């Protein structure tokens, strides 16, 4: 459990608001991503009171990131393989279910959506969150330009 708390504190030190999440990716604390914090004392208290199984990261303006959530189900990873050469290198997390989270700098006004780009491809931004297992968080910086929406505008379905 100490490693997952370290992951939460490391993410918070980088400006990412975090909260405890269970194996089912459901928040373990009241208010879920709305309770996310970057304050180490608050994070330690959440860990003591609710326990981190996974680290939830509030996406959007709260943490300054948006995530491209690529599901490991029909469509998701197939889309990624077909489009990976169009995607810039950025911080990427393998999810416990075998999907991917690609982190990008958040742009004002970007909201979370489900399958707006393609089936199995979700956007986690304002009003959303993603879970980090702490298992593979490579030290690749978060891409800061060009903007998230501009990167994927040609891939959005009309």
Automatic annotation (TrEMBL):
Domain DNA primase/polymerase bifunctional N-terminal: 8-149
Biological source species: Acidiphilium cryptum (strain JF-5)
InterPro entries: DNA_primase/pol_bifunc_N
Protein's name in the database: DNA primase/polymerase bifunctional N-terminal domain-containing protein
A Pfam family reported for this protein in Swiss-Prot or TrEMBL: Prim-Pol
């Amino acid at each position: 459990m100490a490693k997952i708390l370290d992951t939460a504190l490391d993410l918070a030190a980088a400006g990412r608001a975090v909260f405890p999440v269970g194996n089912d990716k459901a928040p373990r604390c009241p208010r879920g991503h709305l309770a996310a914090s970057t304050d180490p004392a608050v994070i330690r208290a959440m860990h003591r009171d609710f326990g981190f199984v996974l680290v939830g990261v509030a996406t959007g303006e709260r943490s300054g990131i948006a995530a491209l959530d690529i599901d490991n189900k029909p469509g998701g990873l197939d889309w990624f393989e077909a489009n990976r050469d169009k995607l810039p290198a950025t911080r990427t997390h393998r999810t416990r279910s075998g999907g991917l989270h690609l982190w990008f700098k958040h742009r004002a006004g970007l909201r979370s959506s489900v399958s707006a780009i393609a089936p199995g491809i979700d956007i986690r931004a304002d009003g959303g969150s993603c879970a980090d297992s702490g298992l593979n968080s490579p030290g690749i910086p978060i891409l800061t330009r060009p903007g998230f929406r501009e990167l994927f505008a040609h891939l959005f379905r009309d």
